[in-house]
Amino acid sequence: MKVAAIDIGTNSMRLLMTEYVDGKFFNRQKYINTTRIGQDVDKRGFISKEAIKRNVNALDEFAKIAENGNCEFVFAMGTSALRDSKNKDEFLREAYLKTGINVEIISGDDEANLGFLGVLQGIDEEGDILVLDIGGGSTEFIVGNKKEGIKFLQSENVGALRMTEKFLKSDPVDDCEFRELEKYINDTIKITLDNIKKFNIKRAVGIGGTITSLSAISQGLEVYSMDKIHNSSLSSKKIDDILQNLKKLNVEEKKKIKGLQPKRADIITAGAKILNIIIKELKVEDIIISEFDNLEGLICQKLKIMS
Fold it and tell me: Is there a domain that residue 295 lies in?
Protein backbone atom coordinates (compact mmCIF):
# COMPACT_ATOMS: atom_id res chain seq x y z
CA MET A 1 0.00 0.00 0.00
CA LYS A 2 1.22 3.52 -0.80
CA VAL A 3 0.78 6.07 2.00
CA ALA A 4 1.92 9.57 2.91
CA ALA A 5 2.66 11.40 6.14
CA ILE A 6 3.08 15.15 6.65
CA ASP A 7 4.77 16.85 9.61
CA ILE A 8 4.02 20.55 10.11
CA GLY A 9 6.94 21.60 12.28
CA THR A 10 7.86 24.97 13.73
CA ASN A 11 10.52 25.64 11.09
CA SER A 12 9.62 23.34 8.20
CA MET A 13 6.94 21.12 6.70
CA ARG A 14 7.94 17.64 5.56
CA LEU A 15 6.27 14.98 3.44
CA LEU A 16 7.06 11.26 3.36
CA MET A 17 5.64 9.10 0.57
CA THR A 18 6.31 5.39 0.87
CA GLU A 19 5.13 1.89 0.20
CA TYR A 20 4.29 0.08 3.43
CA VAL A 21 4.18 -3.73 3.17
CA ASP A 22 4.10 -6.19 6.10
CA GLY A 23 5.34 -3.56 8.55
CA LYS A 24 8.27 -2.50 6.36
CA PHE A 25 8.98 0.66 4.34
CA PHE A 26 9.98 0.60 0.68
CA ASN A 27 10.77 3.37 -1.84
CA ARG A 28 10.72 6.17 0.73
CA GLN A 29 10.66 9.70 -0.74
CA LYS A 30 10.91 12.79 1.44
CA TYR A 31 10.17 16.41 0.57
CA ILE A 32 10.83 19.48 2.70
CA ASN A 33 9.62 23.09 2.58
CA THR A 34 10.89 25.70 5.05
CA THR A 35 7.51 27.25 5.91
CA ARG A 36 8.20 28.69 9.40
CA ILE A 37 4.73 28.40 10.88
CA GLY A 38 6.36 29.14 14.24
CA GLN A 39 7.81 32.52 13.28
CA ASP A 40 7.27 34.86 16.28
CA VAL A 41 4.78 32.45 17.92
CA ASP A 42 6.97 32.36 21.04
CA LYS A 43 6.87 36.17 21.28
CA ARG A 44 3.30 36.91 20.11
CA GLY A 45 1.41 33.71 20.89
CA PHE A 46 -0.22 33.73 17.46
CA ILE A 47 0.54 32.39 13.99
CA SER A 48 0.62 35.35 11.62
CA LYS A 49 -1.82 35.61 8.70
CA GLU A 50 1.12 35.34 6.29
CA ALA A 51 2.41 32.17 8.01
CA ILE A 52 -1.06 30.60 7.90
CA LYS A 53 -1.38 31.33 4.18
CA ARG A 54 2.19 30.14 3.46
CA ASN A 55 1.65 26.87 5.31
CA VAL A 56 -1.81 26.16 3.91
CA ASN A 57 -0.40 26.61 0.39
CA ALA A 58 2.55 24.32 1.19
CA LEU A 59 0.19 21.71 2.62
CA ASP A 60 -1.88 21.90 -0.55
CA GLU A 61 1.25 21.32 -2.66
CA PHE A 62 2.15 18.26 -0.58
CA ALA A 63 -1.44 16.95 -0.78
CA LYS A 64 -1.25 17.16 -4.58
CA ILE A 65 2.12 15.33 -4.64
CA ALA A 66 0.60 12.56 -2.51
CA GLU A 67 -2.48 12.40 -4.75
CA ASN A 68 -0.34 12.22 -7.90
CA GLY A 69 1.69 9.50 -6.20
CA ASN A 70 -1.48 7.43 -5.76
CA CYS A 71 -1.29 7.41 -1.96
CA GLU A 72 -4.29 5.67 -0.37
CA PHE A 73 -3.96 7.60 2.89
CA VAL A 74 -2.48 10.96 3.89
CA PHE A 75 -1.82 11.47 7.60
CA ALA A 76 -0.81 14.91 8.92
CA MET A 77 0.40 16.17 12.29
CA GLY A 78 1.31 19.53 13.78
CA THR A 79 3.91 19.93 16.53
CA SER A 80 5.43 22.60 18.79
CA ALA A 81 4.31 25.89 17.18
CA LEU A 82 0.77 24.66 16.60
CA ARG A 83 0.60 23.35 20.17
CA ASP A 84 1.58 26.78 21.49
CA SER A 85 -0.40 29.12 19.22
CA LYS A 86 -3.69 30.65 20.39
CA ASN A 87 -5.14 30.70 16.87
CA LYS A 88 -4.31 27.09 15.94
CA ASP A 89 -8.00 26.43 15.14
CA GLU A 90 -7.90 29.09 12.42
CA PHE A 91 -5.03 27.27 10.71
CA LEU A 92 -6.71 23.85 11.06
CA ARG A 93 -9.91 25.22 9.52
CA GLU A 94 -8.14 26.93 6.61
CA ALA A 95 -6.00 23.83 6.01
CA TYR A 96 -9.02 21.53 5.86
CA LEU A 97 -11.01 23.86 3.58
CA LYS A 98 -8.14 24.09 1.09
CA THR A 99 -6.83 20.50 1.18
CA GLY A 100 -9.43 18.25 2.79
CA ILE A 101 -6.73 17.06 5.21
CA ASN A 102 -7.41 16.89 8.94
CA VAL A 103 -4.21 18.01 10.67
CA GLU A 104 -3.86 16.45 14.12
CA ILE A 105 -1.99 18.55 16.69
CA ILE A 106 0.00 16.15 18.83
CA SER A 107 1.44 16.63 22.32
CA GLY A 108 5.16 16.72 23.04
CA ASP A 109 4.92 13.22 24.52
CA ASP A 110 3.13 11.92 21.42
CA GLU A 111 5.78 13.54 19.22
CA ALA A 112 8.50 11.82 21.23
CA ASN A 113 6.64 8.49 20.99
CA LEU A 114 6.34 8.75 17.21
CA GLY A 115 10.01 9.71 16.84
CA PHE A 116 11.07 6.66 18.85
CA LEU A 117 8.72 4.38 16.91
CA GLY A 118 10.14 5.68 13.64
CA VAL A 119 13.77 5.28 14.73
CA LEU A 120 13.15 1.63 15.66
CA GLN A 121 12.23 0.94 12.02
CA GLY A 122 15.72 1.86 10.86
CA ILE A 123 18.11 0.81 13.64
CA ASP A 124 19.50 -2.50 14.85
CA GLU A 125 20.22 -2.14 18.57
CA GLU A 126 18.85 -4.28 21.40
CA GLY A 127 20.03 -2.17 24.37
CA ASP A 128 18.75 1.18 25.64
CA ILE A 129 19.03 4.01 23.13
CA LEU A 130 18.61 7.75 23.57
CA VAL A 131 16.71 9.43 20.75
CA LEU A 132 17.15 13.21 20.38
CA ASP A 133 14.82 15.18 18.13
CA ILE A 134 15.91 18.83 17.90
CA GLY A 135 13.16 20.67 16.08
CA GLY A 136 12.41 24.33 15.46
CA GLY A 137 10.36 24.84 18.60
CA SER A 138 11.21 21.99 20.94
CA THR A 139 13.58 19.12 21.63
CA GLU A 140 12.29 15.65 22.43
CA PHE A 141 14.33 13.27 24.61
CA ILE A 142 13.39 9.58 24.54
CA VAL A 143 15.07 6.61 26.24
CA GLY A 144 14.00 3.04 25.53
CA ASN A 145 14.67 -0.16 23.67
CA LYS A 146 13.02 -2.55 21.21
CA LYS A 147 11.97 -5.08 23.85
CA GLU A 148 10.59 -2.85 26.63
CA GLY A 149 9.59 0.24 24.61
CA ILE A 150 9.92 3.75 26.04
CA LYS A 151 11.29 4.09 29.57
CA PHE A 152 11.60 7.88 29.71
CA LEU A 153 10.46 10.76 27.56
CA GLN A 154 10.44 14.51 27.88
CA SER A 155 9.71 17.40 25.54
CA GLU A 156 11.49 20.69 26.31
CA ASN A 157 10.75 24.06 24.69
CA VAL A 158 14.26 24.57 23.35
CA GLY A 159 14.36 24.46 19.54
CA ALA A 160 16.55 25.99 16.84
CA LEU A 161 14.06 28.65 15.69
CA ARG A 162 12.71 29.43 19.17
CA MET A 163 16.22 29.91 20.65
CA THR A 164 17.39 32.01 17.68
CA GLU A 165 14.42 34.39 18.02
CA LYS A 166 14.82 34.58 21.79
CA PHE A 167 18.58 35.17 22.02
CA LEU A 168 20.58 35.50 18.80
CA LYS A 169 19.79 38.97 17.48
CA SER A 170 23.28 39.83 16.13
CA ASP A 171 24.90 38.67 12.91
CA PRO A 172 27.45 37.15 13.32
CA VAL A 173 26.49 35.82 16.77
CA ASP A 174 27.45 38.06 19.69
CA ASP A 175 29.43 36.36 22.49
CA CYS A 176 27.24 37.84 25.22
CA GLU A 177 24.04 36.66 23.51
CA PHE A 178 25.61 33.25 23.01
CA ARG A 179 26.42 32.92 26.73
CA GLU A 180 22.82 33.84 27.59
CA LEU A 181 21.59 31.20 25.14
CA GLU A 182 23.89 28.61 26.68
CA LYS A 183 22.76 29.42 30.23
CA TYR A 184 19.08 29.27 29.27
CA ILE A 185 19.42 25.89 27.53
CA ASN A 186 21.43 24.45 30.44
CA ASP A 187 18.92 25.69 33.02
CA THR A 188 15.92 24.47 31.00
CA ILE A 189 17.09 20.92 30.30
CA LYS A 190 19.19 20.21 33.44
CA ILE A 191 16.57 18.04 35.21
CA THR A 192 15.86 16.09 32.01
CA LEU A 193 19.58 15.39 31.47
CA ASP A 194 19.97 14.33 35.13
CA ASN A 195 17.17 11.81 34.62
CA ILE A 196 18.75 10.46 31.41
CA LYS A 197 22.11 9.95 33.19
CA LYS A 198 20.45 7.25 35.33
CA PHE A 199 20.10 4.96 32.30
CA ASN A 200 22.77 2.77 30.73
CA ILE A 201 22.60 4.24 27.23
CA LYS A 202 24.14 2.00 24.56
CA ARG A 203 23.68 4.40 21.67
CA ALA A 204 22.52 7.96 21.01
CA VAL A 205 20.45 8.54 17.87
CA GLY A 206 19.59 11.94 16.41
CA ILE A 207 16.64 12.88 14.21
CA GLY A 208 15.30 16.19 12.89
CA GLY A 209 16.55 18.99 10.67
CA THR A 210 19.33 20.32 12.91
CA ILE A 211 21.06 16.96 13.26
CA THR A 212 20.63 15.84 9.65
CA SER A 213 21.97 19.26 8.54
CA LEU A 214 25.05 18.92 10.74
CA SER A 215 25.73 15.49 9.23
CA ALA A 216 25.34 16.92 5.71
CA ILE A 217 27.77 19.75 6.63
CA SER A 218 30.23 17.24 8.09
CA GLN A 219 30.11 15.21 4.85
CA GLY A 220 30.16 18.32 2.63
CA LEU A 221 27.20 17.05 0.64
CA GLU A 222 26.52 19.03 -2.53
CA VAL A 223 23.13 17.31 -2.82
CA TYR A 224 21.21 15.97 0.19
CA SER A 225 21.09 12.17 0.25
CA MET A 226 18.94 10.14 2.67
CA ASP A 227 21.21 7.13 2.12
CA LYS A 228 24.36 9.09 3.02
CA ILE A 229 22.73 10.68 6.09
CA HIS A 230 21.10 7.54 7.50
CA ASN A 231 23.39 5.73 9.96
CA SER A 232 26.12 8.35 9.55
CA SER A 233 27.70 9.54 12.80
CA LEU A 234 28.93 12.77 14.36
CA SER A 235 31.59 12.83 17.07
CA SER A 236 31.39 15.26 19.98
CA LYS A 237 34.56 16.93 18.65
CA LYS A 238 33.12 17.28 15.12
CA ILE A 239 29.95 18.92 16.48
CA ASP A 240 32.10 21.33 18.49
CA ASP A 241 34.30 22.14 15.47
CA ILE A 242 31.26 22.88 13.26
CA LEU A 243 29.73 25.05 16.00
CA GLN A 244 32.91 27.11 16.47
CA ASN A 245 32.99 27.76 12.72
CA LEU A 246 29.29 28.69 12.58
CA LYS A 247 29.76 31.25 15.38
CA LYS A 248 32.29 33.19 13.27
CA LEU A 249 30.15 33.43 10.13
CA ASN A 250 27.30 35.76 9.24
CA VAL A 251 24.10 34.39 7.72
CA GLU A 252 25.14 35.08 4.13
CA GLU A 253 28.40 33.18 4.68
CA LYS A 254 26.52 30.28 6.29
CA LYS A 255 24.27 30.02 3.23
CA LYS A 256 27.35 29.03 1.21
CA ILE A 257 28.29 26.09 3.47
CA LYS A 258 28.15 22.76 1.61
CA GLY A 259 25.41 20.55 3.05
CA LEU A 260 23.40 23.35 4.68
CA GLN A 261 20.07 24.39 3.20
CA PRO A 262 20.24 28.21 2.81
CA LYS A 263 16.86 28.64 4.53
CA ARG A 264 18.26 26.99 7.66
CA ALA A 265 21.36 29.23 7.79
CA ASP A 266 19.91 31.68 10.33
CA ILE A 267 18.92 29.03 12.90
CA ILE A 268 21.61 26.33 12.55
CA THR A 269 23.93 27.89 15.16
CA ALA A 270 21.31 27.71 17.91
CA GLY A 271 20.41 24.16 16.87
CA ALA A 272 24.06 23.09 16.92
CA LYS A 273 24.49 24.63 20.38
CA ILE A 274 21.52 22.67 21.75
CA LEU A 275 23.08 19.42 20.48
CA ASN A 276 26.55 20.46 21.69
CA ILE A 277 25.29 21.02 25.25
CA ILE A 278 23.35 17.73 25.38
CA ILE A 279 26.25 15.66 24.01
CA LYS A 280 28.79 17.21 26.40
CA GLU A 281 26.58 16.98 29.48
CA LEU A 282 25.75 13.32 28.82
CA LYS A 283 29.41 12.56 27.88
CA VAL A 284 28.28 11.00 24.59
CA GLU A 285 31.28 10.42 22.31
CA ASP A 286 29.29 10.21 19.08
CA ILE A 287 25.71 10.27 17.86
CA ILE A 288 24.19 8.21 15.04
CA ILE A 289 21.86 10.02 12.63
CA SER A 290 18.58 8.38 11.59
CA GLU A 291 16.53 9.21 8.51
CA PHE A 292 13.67 7.22 10.05
CA ASP A 293 11.79 9.58 12.34
CA ASN A 294 8.31 10.69 13.43
CA LEU A 295 6.96 10.52 9.86
CA GLU A 296 7.62 6.77 9.73
CA GLY A 297 6.33 6.57 13.30
CA LEU A 298 3.06 8.28 12.34
CA ILE A 299 2.45 5.83 9.49
CA CYS A 300 3.20 2.83 11.75
CA GLN A 301 0.85 4.11 14.43
CA LYS A 302 -2.04 5.04 12.14
CA LEU A 303 -1.99 1.84 10.10
CA LYS A 304 -1.77 -0.28 13.25
CA ILE A 305 -4.89 1.44 14.63
CA MET A 306 -6.70 0.90 11.33
CA SER A 307 -5.77 -2.79 10.96
Answer: no
Considering its fold, how many domains does the chain have in total? 2
pTM of the model: 0.93
Residue 4 burial (CB count, 10 A): 26
Q: What is the CATH number of the domain that holds 26?
A: 3.30.420.40
Both 281 and 172 in one domain: the answer is yes
Contact (Cβ atoms closer than 8 angstroms) between residue 122 and residue 296: yes
φ/ψ (deg, to 5) at 8: -95, 95
Contact between 205 and 287 under an 8 Å Cβ cutoff? The reply is: yes
pLDDT in tens, 233-258: 999 999 999 999 999 999 999 999 99
Residue 241 and residue 255: Cα distance in Å, rounded? Answer: 18
The reply to whether 103 and 127 lie within a common domain is no
Shared-domain flag, residues 86 and 134: no
**Secondary structure of residue 1 in the 3-state scheme:** coil
Terminal C-alpha separation, the chain: 13
| Residue 213, Cβ density class (10 Å: 0-12 exposed, 13-18 middle, ≥19 buried) | buried
